[in-house]
Amino acid sequence: MIGAMNIQHSGVVIKGEEPVLRVMPMPADVNASGDVFGGWVMAQVDIAGAIPAMRRARGRIATVAVNSFLFKQPISVGDVVSFYAKIVSTGRTSITVDVQVFAERNPAHPIVVKVTEATLTYVCLNADGSKRPVPPVE
Predict the structure, then answer these.
(1) Contact 60, 36 (CB under 8 A)
(2) Whole-prediction pTM
(3) Cβ of 101: how many Cβ atoms within 10 Å?
(4) Domains present along the chain, CATH in parentheses
(5) CA atoms of 81 and 68, how far apart (whole Å)
(6) CA dist 70 to 114, 115, 119, 123, 131, Å?
(7) What pLDDT, on the 0 to 100 scale, is given for residue 138?
(8) Which residues is 76 bridged to in the sheet?
């Protein structure tokens, strides 16, 4: 489980973790109600999860499953959204990644809330698109 959060000027900080992605949604990213589209969030989560998976695979990967995805709170334009991702398991050709998403709101009096959590599985690929084994840990 991810440890306690502390707010700093640079945004969200989770003890012992670094965000793999930090982004601020723009007006084009919202639905008619003013909340950021779920699809936008899902795309960012996939990018964030792919970063540690690509590093572990030392090469090409592809998303093969979204094992779980939970929207806890909406995201708004102006929120600074931080994505924390870590590998939770590896199989013969697959890598499963947990992604935790936090939004920092209200710059005058910052508050940080957890907005999304997800687990995704990626598969390691050769240049021709065929599956390949996850490389051994160095």
Answers:
(1) no
(2) 0.88
(3) 27
(4) 5-124 (3.10.129.10)
(5) 19
(6) 11, 8, 9, 22, 29
(7) 80
(8) 35
